[in-house]
Amino acid sequence: MARKGGGRQPTCKSRAELQAMREAGGILAGALDALEGLLRPGVTTAELDRSTEEYIRAHGATPSFKGLYGYPATICCAPNDVVVHGIPDTTTVLREGDILGIDVGAEVRGMHADLTRTFAIGEVSERAKRLMEKTKEALAAGIAQAVEGAKVQDISRTIQEIVEGAGYSVIRDLTGHGIGRRFHEPPSIPNFVALSQFPEDYGVRLRRGMTLAIEPMVAEGAFRIVRDPDRWTYRTADGKLSAHFEHTVEVTRGAPRILTLPAGPGRDCEPRPEGSGAAGNGGYGS
Ligand code: MF3
Ligand code: CO
Q1: Does ligand 1 have an atom closer than 6 angstroms to the CB of 119?
Q2: What's this model's pTM, rounded to 2 decimal places?
Q3: Are 245 and 136 in contact (CB under 8 A)?
Q4: Atom of ligand 1 nearest to the CA of 105
């Protein structure tokens, strides 16, 4: 998430920059796929952090979060009422029925990617499952809006409609963001529309080659959040659940291209020629 809106123009990335981001994103997806096997009651978030860092470095990338604004770890862990930026530690032990947001960033050749998924630990409540499903659905719908010629507010509005339509609320103090050579770049990508809060960001017109971290943070109850004394961990003020899903996405003329998908057949070759986006690999399935 980014804390503040920025009025500066977003940059369009070169082929080489996009390729580096796609590699970083592929490593992140692989890291979370691998991590999923460790997610069971009794495991500490410090263990998850250590194994994610090892995975990222073993694949030739660097964790983006470590040292960013002084953040001390590779991943952020957000169990249950934690919204974002929970610091992994040896005293946070996963329990059956928890939901856990894991947010992770990596850098390849100076370019960043950002990915978040919320996981179920063992068997979770129907309530928790529905919250995660709707948040994921809101992310997919928001991503679909990220096409050349659209505006940031099209993403924001679409996410908000799905989240509020499901009876949940969108966190308002935290947003998605541009991403690239810097981890947080303009524009801010709010998950709601309130022109008073991010007046310059909503009107930003998307152009091909822009790269965006789209990340709905959804509260089961009210959107007010509070910060722990550690000055990092954000929780819902009402103590209800929160879920978070995020992808890093490239804007094209056609279907948006998700850069944070697992590497696989067809993922290691050169980017497709421009203009072939509608037939491209923008879906979740590839
Ligand atoms: N993915 C988080 C975001 O977009 C970044 C967390 S790193 C931190 O804000 F240093 F800010 F914690
Ligand atoms: Co982010």
Answers
A1: no
A2: 0.92
A3: yes
A4: 1
